[in-house]
Amino acid sequence: MSDKQRTLLIVEDDPALQKQMRWALDACDTVVAGDRESAIAQLRKHEPAVVTMDLGLPPAPDDVTEGFRLLREILTLAPDTKVIVLTGQHDRENAVKAVGMGAYDFFAKPFEPELLILTIDRAFRMHDLQMENARLSALQAGPLSGLLTRDPAMLKICRTIEKLASASVTVALLGESGTGKEILARGLHALSPRANERFVAINCAAIPDALLESELFGYEKGAFTGAVKQTQGKIETAHRGTLFLDEIGDLPLPLQAKLLRFLQERCIERIGGREEIPVDVRIVCATHRDLKAQIHAGVFREDLYYRLAEIVVEIPALREREGDATLLAHAFAQRFARDNARRSLVLADDALSAIEAHRWPGNVRELENCMKRAVIMAEGYCITAADLGLQTPDDSLEHLNLRQVRDEAERGAVLKVMARTNGNVARAAEILGVSRPSLYDLLGRFGLKKENGS
Fold first, then answer.
1. pLDDT for the residue numbered 3
2. Cis peptide bond upstream of 361, omega within 30
């Protein structure tokens, strides 16, 4: 969305200041209002994503009552609107109260246009994220609706799952714990011709080895102590449907041999039984372990691997999915706010920075638990890094610009090439595609001394 398409409502009763703000914020499509009633009319007409408003409004500009009334009405009529409150220089108490009511941010008058523009731009980006999140949430009728992503690699995996769904192949989903393997497995089933039959899941790591065989293959009455009746196993239960073997890398070697025989013959024998029972089932498996390394270590059968991994889908960790952590954080914040009967919560800038900087070793599951805690702990309508229990990184958007990024990249490239060429400026300039004088300038600018002859 371009800035010109972004509607900004300016609520200000001083005509001179109103004009000054319109001039300073001309990158946006601005509409103005001088009092509460006209502001509500403009809100209904233009549906602005962001509103800047003075708390002191007619008929009593020296009182904040009308301003707070307007703020409540805006947040009631359009809860997703980002409201930036403008207050007097020493009116911090009312500013904090406004944020507690749900305002996005506050600014003291007289304000610096550059800082206000930066805050407004952030508010627009926050609004864009929430709208995108709402759009993606609206697609929840689809089989892969539980997987919220904008990452190109994950979107490609979703398309792969759609292609594989109708194919009669065994699929292995490989990735760290908490990356969404079961959601993808359920998507495979829901999109397949077997969708009307059962989806049966079993976690091979969660069941003791002594019980896992009976869970998978079932048993006959009297097969062992406590076997008081004939019981079907998970494989037989999934007949005509899909069997999801989660954490297949933890399957004991003796059971691997029995599972391999089933995959070859498509028949099972219950424990204590002699009858071969044909089973028509699609197998989908998943693991966070490196199966090839386990094969080399002698703890996983190579022949079973090739039976299970006819098609391998590798799922990236959350830290590798660009933008997904913040996208999911917004979705979780909204969901848990509804579950806990709280009105919509927004993520503060320090919370977003902390989410982007965190490595998320537990992936989506860790993020989900973190957001659930934050929604419970948050005071007011804003989630902070402290609520998340995460550290705020030192860097921020204010200290990051294209010149800085370009300089750091150029400095790294010059250092690398000078090291590779052993300080030979002529050769380094040739590799970098610049003239020797330009390279000398770069060396001087970055404080890098040429120690070797050229």
1. 42
2. no
CB atoms within 10 A of CB 331: 19
Count of helices and strands (H, E) across the chain: 19, 14
Cβ neighbors of 412 (< 8 A, separation 6 or more) are none
Render pLDDT for 183-241 as a digit per residue (tens, 0 to 9): 999 999 999 999 999 999 999 999 998 899 999 999 999 888 888 899 999 999 999 99
- Model's pTM, two decimal places? 0.60
φ, ψ dihedrals at 49, nearest 5°: -75, -30
Distance (Å, whole) CA 356 – CA 392? 10
Q: Residue 343: which H helix or E strand, with range?
A: none
Burial of 30 (0-12, 13-18, 19+ CB in 10 A): buried
CB–CB of 6/29 below 8 Å? yes
Cβ–Cβ < 8 Å for 249, 289: yes
> In the numeric block, which tokens belong to residue 251?
């399957």
Please state, in angstroms and rounded to a whole number, the distance separating the CA atoms of residues 207 and 219.
16
Are residues 180 and 319 in contact, defined by beta-carbon separation less than 8 angstroms?
no
**What CA–CA distance (Å, rounded) separates 110 from 87?**
9
Q: Do 194 and 242 contact (CB within 8 A), yes or no?
A: yes
Distances in Å between the Cα of 190 and the Cα atoms of 13, 95, 135, 348 are 57, 50, 22, 37
DSSP reduced 3-state for 108: strand
What DSSP string describes 406-430? HHHHHHHHHHHHHHHTTT-HHHHHH
- From residue 326, how far is each of 121, 213, 353, 355, 364 by CA, in Å? 17, 42, 9, 7, 11
Asked if 345 and 375 touch (Cβ cutoff 8 Å), the reply is yes
Q: Are 252 and 209 in contact (CB under 8 A)?
A: yes
CA dist 428 and 292 (Å) reads 42
Residues 6+ apart with CB under 8 A from 288: 174, 175, 176, 177, 247, 249
| Structure-block tokens of residue 196 | 């009307």
Q: What are the E-state strand segments in 74-140?
A: 82-87, 105-108
Name the nearest CA neighbour of 184 among 364, 369, 366, 372. Answer: 364
Instruction: Provide φ and ψ at 271, rounded to 5°.
Output: -60, 130
Coil/strand/helix, residue 112: coil
Show Cβ contacts of residue 319 under 8 Å, excluding neighbours closer than 6 positions.
Answer: 325, 359, 360
Under the banding of pLDDT at 50, 70 and 90, the label for residue 310 is very high
